[in-house]
Amino acid sequence: MLPGDHVLAMVETDDAGPALDLLGLHLDPARKVVILGATRVAELTAKRLCRQGLQTVLVDQDPERVRRIAIENPRLIAVCGDPTDPKLFHSEGLDTADAALALTGWDEINILGSLVAKAVGVPTAVSRFHRLDLVTLLAGVGIDGAVSSRLSAANEILRFVRRGRIHSVVTFQDSDAEALEVEVEETSEIVGKTLRDIHLPRDMIVGGIVRGDRAFVPRGQSRIKAGDRLIVIALPGAIHLVGELSG
User: Fold this and answer.
1) Is the predicted pLDDT of residue 53 greater than 80, yes or no?
2) pLDDT higher at 154 or 49
3) 181 in Cβ contact with 210 (< 8 Å)
């Protein structure tokens, strides 16, 4: 492994801490979050954060949208103002937030808003982008995380395009690899076999198995059962074989 490598690690929940320690990372849960923008994505995110008990502040320049969102979400603090104005961050106490989520509909505002948030002292800034090239370019360069709603939509579309009982598909902006959740049917040839017996191609690995309400990281001797959901990571040369695992 080299500095700067992107690692996709499959771990059980209780082992997430040690895995992060190995990579030099640490968890620092947020208690206060500021959301820049009043888009549909911003509103849905704000509602979810409020339900989870986080102090959430939403900032946007559109007074009508801010007023409506505030009325519909009494737990939310809604502020009408420029989400890129550092004075607003200080006057409204937004500089004390643990994280800033830039979710407006404009890449330029999201970039500037994230950089302003970092400059005034917000530890973590996550920005939404429409241009996929910005996701790779700016993540980690003054902006801690970059997300793309288009990429998320593409993942959902791929779920229906791939053959077999595919429950989810995740692609990665800096790689051709895909992570797929595949359900094993009773008719599948791999039912009753161990992972070692399946002889997967070199470009494919089963990183996790979800069995009922339990998820675990499999070993070579792990035996596949009907109804299992396999978390499969595959490179382009092996993706067409993923559907065959489901039966």
Assistant:
1) yes
2) 49
3) yes
